[in-house]
Amino acid sequence: MPWLGLGVFQVADGDEVIRSVQYALEAGYRSIDTAAGYRNEAGVGAAIQQSGIPREQLFITTKLANSDQGYESTLRAFEESRRKLGLEYIDLYLIHWPGKDKYKDTWRAFEKLQKDGYIRSIGVSNFQIHHLESLKQDSDTIPAVNQVEFHPLLNQQELRQYCKRGGIQLEAWTPIMKGNLDLPQLTELAAKHGKTPAQIVLRWDLQHGVVTIPKSVRQERIQENAGIFDFTLSDEDMKLIDQMNQNHRFGPDPDQLLF
Ligand code: NDP
Hints:
This protein has a single domain (6-181, 210-227), classed as NADP-dependent oxidoreductase domain (TIM Barrel, Alpha-Beta Barrel). Helix 7 packs across helix 8. It is an alpha/beta fold. It has ten helices and eight strands. Helix content is 41%, strand content 14%. The protein is globular. The protein has an eight-stranded parallel β-sheet. It binds NADPH dihydro-nicotinamide-adenine-dinucleotide phosphate. Residues 7-9, 33, 96, 125-126, 147, 173-179, 181, 196, 198, 213-218, 221, 224-225, 251 line the site of NADPH dihydro-nicotinamide-adenine-dinucleotide phosphate.
């Protein structure tokens, strides 16, 4: 999967999401991260269609809404997402949040959809180590991806190492901390490399082997966030950012969101 994608959480369906996806595709992004819960899959699909970019060059992720967990309901919800996106297949389908006790049934439906050829890769989001361990007891299919909150203030060291050992690709949500980038370590490194704080953080993701999906609706920021492949952070730079960890979440704790 591409190392960089565009996130579209809290982007309005219709013109706003269509424009954002267009800006991203023009800037060279080929990966888009949406979800049933974002209610903008139709706009994402429209932008893809309008772009004329061959389908096989794109990597489209969507996620199952919490309320649709369960075997039959997953099959139905997936079909609805696929219809809204206007796609024959989805590249990556994720269980959006583990919730309490339905994710194993949900996972069986994911396995079926993948076997039937509708999804290239299946994965999870917001899974903690204990969720992944529990899933492993019931299924031989390893999630391709675990998409979790990940940024300098929450660097998920333990989960990152667990996923790496287990062959699960970690993907960062809220990678640029919702734009809260005015932190001295980041401004210092930005000045040193002639880059912006957002680019420093996104580069740190890549060098940790973490896929990243910053969101913006503005063309200049979408372009800025893609400018991360032409410089390298030194080991000391990486360490400086690693030391910023505070286990601080901007979003919900997966163990508390039991819907
Ligand atoms: P981000 O960390 O990507 O931050 C987005 C915010 O930062 C927006 O307010 C944006 O404003 C601003 N911004 C964007 N680029 C820059 C820049 N270069 N400099 C300064 N500010 C900037 O937050 P998200 O929560 O959106 O996370 C990214 C994606 O991750 C989501 O869109 C979604 O796809 C996914 N996600 C997944 C979750 C899950 O549970 N699996 C949960 C949350 C997110 P503006 O748009 O005005 O530019």
